[in-house]
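User: Can you model how adenosine-5'-diphosphate sits in this protein?
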Amino acid sequence: MEALRAVQILNPSGEIHMPRPDHPRVLCVANQKGGVGKTTTTVNLAVALALHGNRVLVVDLDPQGNASTGLNVPHHAGVPDVYDCLIDNVPLAEVAQAVEGIPNLFCVPATIDLAGAEIELVSVVARESRLQRAIAGHPEKFDYVFIDCPPSLGLLTVNALCAAQEVLIPIQCEYYALEGLNQLINNINLVRQHLNPTLDVSTILLTMYDRRTRLADAVEQDVRNHFGSKVLDAVIPRNVRVSEAPSYGQSVMTYDPGSRGATSYFEAALEIAMRGVNTGGAA
Ligand SMILES: Nc1ncnc2c1ncn2[C@@H]1O[C@H](COP(=O)(O)OP(=O)(O)O)[C@@H](O)[C@H]1O
Ligand SMILES: [Mg+2]
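Assistant: Here's the modeled complex, given as structure tokens:
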């Protein structure tokens, strides 16, 4: 069974396709809480979609550069990064790097430079829409662009919300999961009113689910009652292989494709792809 799953996920023959959307889908992966699985979700969904016939770009918008690390993309000081696009108008295509070993997957890295952007953006022209312009100006059309947000609601996250059509919110299945979410939703509503009228919270993903606890089940019910069909059927379990993968510069998809973590992210990616086809992209 595990070997079969691994073949399905690694797709060595390239035979298995997740349907491609009819227009580029830009998803902002946001939650101002740290450690809820934003980066893990970004990296694994991006790899899953790219392994199954989609052209995918990951934009690392967190100065910690965890998505760049997870995809094994160089992001030490001095490497051209998303900061250069936001502050100095460098075209995105000039800083995007191909992800080794995963055809059709590209990453715009974040270096430590990005730490200053939150403050420097305050005084630049059109400070909220710098990323939107950079993505729109990319000559190539990606099927998916995933923007991995920092754990805050500052100008970097606002840039991501302006650049996206969809918001994907990972929610960790723990007691305080819903606390603070109102603040995120309020910010999304503000951006919708003033800057990006078609922005839609399209997808909620439950992460780090521990089925041994009754609490996880209660949180899941809460989230499903509150967000209804936006919540993916696929739930990501707490799985040690998921947390080991980044230290090898890999996603769990390639690090241990037979693991429950990989299977769950594969299912989540497939659901996202199917929804994109059924609704014509952004709902
Ligand atoms: N499903 C999972 N099972 C086990 N560990 C996980 C899982 N998802 C994420 N982690 C670990 O939890 C930590 C926080 O995840 P991360 O994706 O970096 O969160 P965020 O980007 O929201 O701060 C990381 O160490 C990551 O490896
Ligand atoms: Mg992160």
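A couple of observations from the model: Residues 38-39, 62, 66 surround magnesium ion (ligand 2) (CB under 6 Å). Residues 260-278 form the longest helix (19 residues).
User: Helpful, thanks.
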